[in-house]
Amino acid sequence: MSVVHRRLLTAFVLAFVAVASLHAAPTPKAPPRDDARWVATWTASPEPRWDGDFALPLNLPSSLWQQTVRQSARVSVGGERVRVMLTNEYGTRPLVIGAAHIALAGEGAAIVAGSDRALTFNGRPSVTIPPGAPMLSDPVDLNVVALGNVSVSLYLPEPTAPASFHWDARQTTYVVAGDQAGAPTIKPDAMLTSRVFLRSILVADTAGTRAVVALGDSITDGNGSSMDANTRWPDFLAKRFAGQHVAVLNAGISGARVLRDGMGENALARFERDVLSQPGVSSVIVMMGINDISWFGTPLGPKDEVTPAEALIAGYQQLIARAHLHGVRIIGATLTPFEGALEDTPMKGYYNADKERVRQAVNRWIREGGAFDVVVDFDAALRDPARPQRFLPAYDSGDHLHPGDAGYKVMADTIDTRAVFGSP
């Protein structure tokens, strides 16, 4: 081949490569390196869907498809930059998020004008989350005030079973057809009382914020409190800590137990995810065990065995040891009164005298055992002095198991905020 032919061939190859590069898919711009300290300001513990033979209704659609889900949350501490953690932890198939947005929440399904921000994931506006995994968004600038409400909207373009959810949100979730993740307001086609795929909201922290996690069951989750009102006891505690650079994270799951799965994984299994891995965590308040004691003999746990006080105490001791291993202060809360609980429901039998004896033994150990760093006596704060195995009527939601709004406020007021972190 002559020199002229070689030169022509080389020029042709270079021209072909140049043209091909024009048509190649552009490489997404990587987000800038972020060295901020991030702290969780809100969380909802994920749980897996249960089968249709469980005693409580799921209250979820079997699938979401080409629909937008809008969920609101009240944060504890504020910040000028935010990130969102999504979850597919209990999914068996990849979860496709076609679009995700965060904004300041307005009334109902509306957002505050001008506050909408599109979320990206490694620079991309959509993301596929593998089964079993969480997914953290890139940071976005959004000025969120302490105790402010934000709205997270997710567009689901493919048929999607809500496999990872939070059953008892005490907050309305809005569902609408099409991609309306950035819409100023939506007219929902359906409303849910559960959360789907939303695990945490984080803020960039410049003030050395510390986080306290409330680990519990339905009494921590807020069952019996008013819908869309943020009157769970961790909500009231967040108000007490306002202005002190303390995030309060609610890791309650209705129906949760220390030793057994059922509605969510047992506390020993989820302690790492829901407590120890929370960014900024310094303390945890544990109030859980009444479902371990009381599901036996009810439709909730027809095959359960009786849980003795010794087994429950051993579970607490494991949580205490693991918290201390990570330098986390652990506060134990006594189990609240429950005589007459759910007696007018299909769950009749939730309370009996033998179960009450177990509760008393557990509470005695919490108060006197010296294993927890601090003890909060919710039992003493809520019980009726004339009949201490029952709630004081003013604090009872009406089902004799869960406090109402007034009872939840009393619980938060009972906590010595100085002792939560060991402050003098």
From TrEMBL:
CDD domains hit by this protein: XynE_like (cd01830)
Sample GO molecular function, one term: hydrolase activity
Protein name per Swiss-Prot or TrEMBL: SGNH/GDSL hydrolase family protein
Keyword Hydrolase (UniProt): yes
Domain of life, per lineage: Bacteria
Signal peptide: 1-24
Keyword annotations of the record: Hydrolase, Signal
Pfam families attached to this UniProt entry: Lipase_GDSL (PF00657)
